[in-house]
Amino acid sequence: MTMPATQAANQDDYPTRLPQEQWLERKDPTVWGRWSPEAPLTRAETNAFDKNGFIVLNGVFSPAEIAALQHESAGMRSGETKLAPENVITEPGSDEVRTVFRLDEQNALFDRLARDKRIAGRVSFLLGDDVYLHQSRLNYKPGFTGKEFYWHSDFETWHAEDGMPRMRAISASVLLTDNDALNGPLMLMPGSHRTFVACAGETPEDNHKTSLKRQEIGVPSQDSLTKMAQQFGVDYAAGRAGTVILFDCNTLHGSNGNITPFPRSNAFFVYNAWSNRVGAPYAAKAPRPAFLSSRDPQAPLVIESGKLA
Amino acid sequence: MTMPATQAANQDDYPTRLPQEQWLERKDPTVWGRWSPEAPLTRAETNAFDKNGFIVLNGVFSPAEIAALQHESAGMRSGETKLAPENVITEPGSDEVRTVFRLDEQNALFDRLARDKRIAGRVSFLLGDDVYLHQSRLNYKPGFTGKEFYWHSDFETWHAEDGMPRMRAISASVLLTDNDALNGPLMLMPGSHRTFVACAGETPEDNHKTSLKRQEIGVPSQDSLTKMAQQFGVDYAAGRAGTVILFDCNTLHGSNGNITPFPRSNAFFVYNAWSNRVGAPYAAKAPRPAFLSSRDPQAPLVIESGKLA
Predict the structure, then answer these.
(1) CA distances from A259 to A64, B64, B253 (A)
(2) Is A222 close to B261, i.e. CB distance below 8 A?
(3) Do B254 and A259 touch (CB under 8 A)?
């Protein structure tokens, strides 16, 4: 395999983990597909995604489909369904399940969900390419003690530590519980995806072992975040169970903790363009493990239509 | 001074810190005053307070008044204004000011604010009595790292640890910064003020030394909170700087942490009815110190009219 041209050090459009933080202009489109009346998103939806770096699609999955997914999810969380331990992250100081990785490999219904036309078809249109899963997981944020997740751009980490060449990936969050402003929803800075914040600081070895619980390297400074928030504002994405949120790989996002009694759970899929497959990391000695960053996909996803349940 | 009849152990309407948690009906009115067209709140506002246990009053203080208060607040936080160290609580692990107690004694403008007719006059009407300050403080929740404050009823602590006989006290929060759903606003369970959750567990000595940072005794169980949230829902109180939130002493409330860059600051006054002055604690060996619980007020507040600035 020859190394893609983008990976030659002198051609890196998104250098990061530098001595000093820098703001760089995005060098890639946000919407790679060409809109037509046959597109799986309306023109307004497509433009909103382009402008804001995210879109909230309500009522994508029916109550019956959500009930079926919740049933599978409960089985995985309760320990009833056997999971490979390396795919499970627990809450700090307890064995309560916070995240199940490689969700598509652990469970047939979630694999089917990942390949559903209502998500993967739309993402494939936005990325103008076939897609595969760079990462997939089930997130579970309990009530009362749900922890915050600090502001970050996913692409910064995927580029630096996973070797993702270009900004041509989209995350989809499928809400399995109702989510409102108060139980730790996804917060985003609309428009922030057009600026790449090259972060300060070298990548420590095995950074992912701590960064999954608390990220310290690869996040913008408080000064940058304040300026971005003043410029773009802070919005949040919420909705009933069955809602799908699509967001660009470079949109700054995070979430507050949750002391309400209402837990929050979602299935989370990162779709990368087939032409944008990962290579050697741009700013780390070794790539993160495969449960965080699929290193060797065999073929693009086979997208399927029809109801899940 | 003779002991009020309510303090005889066999007449305590609100026993708490018991071997087992219990739900008891509130034995006191929420609105003690009698509404008339001359009342300082509309009939609808008065009824809403009675029903929900809180009310949000927008635009009570003008931008010029808020600017003057913010100026005084900045002086106290920066250390420019000398403060007695026992009145200041800092963030865990730093010397950043989180709370300034005895706000009315530290600063003339905040003293005037506490006695303003637009707050104290309305509270005095709702309580149907003269009022005095049981506690007063300036709260400062920074951006990025603002910590959550767990669910509690203030009255439970004030009764158990301060010796407040009846539910006849109201807290007022004056927003000095804009506050929305995302930067850790006050969350409340509307209607929860009608139930007294008698809490499980004996009061440890000097409980306030830890409970101000993280309360563990005197809070309802997760089971109770879940039932209450299902019954009453969770609402939040937000608004522009200059908004005033009034809430009953027994309304369950808390707040999430705040990772947004937007700090949150408010002046906080607890008004107690003059006839409801504190005595010996109902469920603690010694009362909390005077900066948390004014033990010996000399006279009711003198309420003043007119602009602050």
Answers:
(1) 29, 35, 11
(2) yes
(3) yes
